[in-house]
Automatic annotation (TrEMBL):
The Mn(2+) ion enhances activity. Its cofactor is Mn(2+). This is Amidohydrolase. Mn(2+) binds at residues 101, 103, 136, 162, 360. It comes from Zoogloea dura. InterPro entries: Amidohydrolase (IPR017439), Bact_exopeptidase_dim_dom (IPR036264), Peptidase_M20 (IPR002933), Peptidase_M20_dimer (IPR011650). Residues 186-275 form the Peptidase M20 dimerisation domain. NCBIfam families: amidohydrolases (TIGR01891). It comes from the Bacteria.
Length: 389
């Protein structure tokens, strides 16, 4: 019998866990109830369980056989500060918080895989189940690393997955290289000299300088970067003044940069610095530019990605694994793990992405029909990785 079919018996229980987590969302580093639920279920399975790693992270340790080899599997646990608009029974019970990215499904699937691997430990080595807090912009991955994740739990490689709306259920996408972009932020302060709006010659207009700067910054992507190297520079805020007849002293511009390569990150930052200095000099304004690195690009290591593609094909069937999907300009803090260890982060089909099924949408809900495929992928990945010579 195919592994997917054997997991159908556990589907209702895993779905119930997923919906319970969905109904009780917790924000970054506040996942106390979720972490307690994970720890309780892991201990009930007889899995060695460690809590408080990276504040609210949980790691389970399952050993079988005598091999010193080890693999890490990661699921994220946090929710988003979004008011849910769904009305089904398992909707969020906490106003202003919602599992709008499917981390409830990720956590439930890894728990489901842990339960099956305990019952049928067809592997030789150690599995580390890494339940990570604070993926949504707060950096739970580096917090776990700082708490000694890889020293305390010496895995050879680490693997992650994310549900992907728009990719059909029963399909998996694997990228041999970049899969998600960096998420950098910038703040620009333009200091001019305030004046009466009827007498602009008596001041230095930061709004005019800022408007020129917004235009000039668009050249950073179109004229300073190889067109084959994808990058995005988006200005998302422009704040200045609060009166109709006053030229303000200061204008502020903010935005984000996305790229798939650390080299492109550096090129964009350097070019932005030059543009800011040049526009400031041209308008006689003092331009202060601050660039803040966020999550780095998520870049799969090629051997591990190819290994995962083979596992995915075994789980989903021939022709249902994509290795040519375009990477996303979204960001993911699994990238920090991949800076420390080899590994691969895959996309698991979540079904149609229309309407409210898109990520970070107030009507999003994880598709429970994807659960058996995610659980099966984790199980086969462990069995195949820890069976290699």
């Amino acid at each position: 019998m195919h592994l997917i079919d054997t997991l159908r018996a556990d589907h209702a229980e895993t779905t119930a866990i997923r919906r319970d987590i969905h109904a009780h969302p917790e924000l970054a580093f506040e996942e106390h109830r979720t972490a307690a639920l994970v720890a309780e279920r892991m201990r009930a399975l007889g899995i060695e369980t460690h809590t408080g790693i990276g504040k609210t992270g949980v790691v389970g340790v399952l050993r079988a056989g005598n091999s010193p080899r080890a693999i890490g599997l990661r699921a994220d646990m946090d929710a988003l500060p979004i008011q849910e608009k769904n009305e089904f029974n398992h909707h969020s019970k906490h106003p202003g918080r919602m599992h709008a990215c499917g981390h409830d499904g990720h956590t439930a699937m890894l728990l489901g895989a842990a339960a099956r691997l305990v019952r049928q430990p067809d592997f030789d080595g150690t599995v580390y189940f890494v339940f990570q807090p604070a993926e949504e912009g707060e950096g739970g991955a580096p917090a776990m690393i700082a708490d000694g994740l890889f020293e305390r739990f010496p895995m050879e490689a680490i693997f992650g997955l994310h549900n992907w709306p728009g990719l059909p259920v029963g399909q998996i996408a694997v990228h041999r290289g970049p899969v998600m972009a960096c998420a950098d932020r910038f703040d620009i302060e333009i200091k001019g000299h305030g004046a009466h709006a009827a007498m602009p010659h008596q001041g230095i207009d930061p709004v005019l300088a800022g408007a020129a700067l917004v235009q000039a910054l668009q050249s950073v992507i179109s004229r300073n970067r190889d067109p084959q190297d994808a990058a995005v520079l988006s200005i998302t805020q422009f704040h200045a003044g609060d009166a109709y007849n006053v030229i303000p002293d200061v204008a502020r511009i903010c935005g984000t940069v996305r790229a798939f390569s650390p080299d492109i990150q550096r090129q964009v930052e350097d070019a932005m610095q030059r543009v800011c200095a040049g526009v400031g000099a041209a308008f006689g304004a003092n331009v202060h530019f601050e660039y803040r690195r966020g999550y780095p690009p998520t870049i799969n290591t090629v051997p591990e990605a190819e290994f995962c593609a083979g596992v995915a094909g075994e789980v989903c069937g021939e022709g249902r694994v994509s290795v040519d999907a375009k990477p996303s300009m979204g960001a993911e803090d699994f990238s920090f793990f991949l800076q420390e260890k080899p590994g691969c982060y895959i996309w698991l089909g979540n079904g149609p992405g229309e309407g409210g099924c898109t990520l970070h949408n107030p009507r999003y809900d994880f598709n429970d029909e994807a659960i058996p495929f995610g659980v099966a992928y984790w199980i086969r990945l462990v069995e195949r990785w820890l069976a290699r010579a």
